Structure formats: C-alpha cells, structure tokens
Amino acid sequence: MTEEPRLQKTITRIDCLIIGKTLAGAIKSIYHVQGEGVACEKRVMDKACWACITVTEDTYEKSVCAGFMSIMRYTCQQNTSGRYLGMTVPIVTVVRTDDALSRLSREVRLAYCLPSCLQDQPPLPTDPDITLETWPATVLHSRAFTGPTNEETVLHEIRALAEILASPNLLVSNTFVIAGYTSLAATHRHNEVWLLERQ
Questions:
Q1: Cβ neighbours of residue 164 closer than 8 Å, sequence gap 6 or more
Q2: Any idea where the domains of the chain sit in the sequence?
Q3: Left if phi > 0, otherwise alpha if psi is -120 to 50, otherwise beta: which for 19?
Q4: pLDDT tens digits for 164-179?
Q5: What is the spatial distance between Cα 53 and Cα 154, in angstroms, rounded to a whole number?
Q6: What is the model's pTM?
Q7: DSSP label at 130?
Q8: CB neighbours of 53 closer than 8 A, spacing ≥ 6?
Q9: Which residues pair with 10 in a beta bridge?
Q10: SS3 of residue 123 by DSSP
Q11: What CATH number does the domain located at 8-197 have?
C-alpha cells in the first residue's frame, strides 16, 4: 500500500482495532467466524484500510448523521480519483461509554471499509477531516439487533452484550462498535454491537 504520511497511518491502539465485512460488487467477507453461540458470535477480523471521521455533535444521532454524510461525499467523487468508489457494509460507529455503561460520549467515530479493489491504493479524501487508516487484525464479539440506532437502543444493546460476555480482563473496556448493514432510513434495520478483545 502506498504510504501517505499526512492521511494514512497504522493504528496500534486497542480501541481502534475495528475491521468489518466489505461488499464490493459481490460480497466478500473479510472476517472469519471462530465460534457461534445463541446470543453472540466471536469473529477474527482481517487487516483492512478504512476511511474514518470523528464527529462531536449535541446527540449521538446527529453525530452519526453528520459523519455518514461526510463519508458518503468521500465515496461520491470527493476523493483524488474523482470517481464513485462504491459502498461497503457495514458502516461502523465507534462509541465510548462511562463505567456504568449508562451514557455515551459525545465524540463518535465513523468508519467505511474501502472496497477490496481499492485496498492497496485507496484514493485520498479531499475533506481534511477524513483520514485513511490501516487497521490490523483483531478478535471481536458480535451481537445482532434490529431497529433504530439511537442513544437509548445503543446503550441497551451494549449492556446486553457486556452482560453476556462478563470478561472484563479479556475485553476492551468502555469502547464499543455499532455496525450498520442497512440504510439509516430503512424500516427493518440490521445492526450489530461489537466488543473487542484485548491484544
């Protein structure tokens, strides 16, 4: 991958090791299911390049909408190639909570996994707030849920997954990922909450 010192970096902090499943024409999974349970699933996620933006608005919902629109503009020609890049799923949102898992931080980080054909030479964003980041492989635990992703439902799903796992020494504390596979306007939305294992 061509190195761009200003915009591309390798993330080594544990709270940023979020890798997803990409859809580029045909579905190409970049994770491997390691084990399945009734309530959650353990996955090994491969290394990939993501376009990321951090947003801080008054509410979680406003931050997600603002970040998503910035990512969409990057995929729709606001990049150095000047062309449409194609959409992948999921779009992931990194959130932080307080120790009681009762409140979300206002700072929200959205990320879009570049299509497989662009992983080696990703077009640079023209928006200086968007960075290209190479995230290494990691292990995560995932729980699916449906419906809207507002602060109330996100906190409910975070607490449900944390209760199921109950392994604070093995997992990254207070950092969770919300993965969205369907449009924000969809009636029946497919979402997941992820919790990362410590490296």
A1: 39, 40, 143
A2: 8-197
A3: beta
A4: 887 766 778 889 999 9
A5: 20
A6: 0.80
A7: -
A8: 67, 70, 71, 109, 110, 111, 127, 129, 130, 131
A9: 134
A10: coil
A11: 3.20.80.10
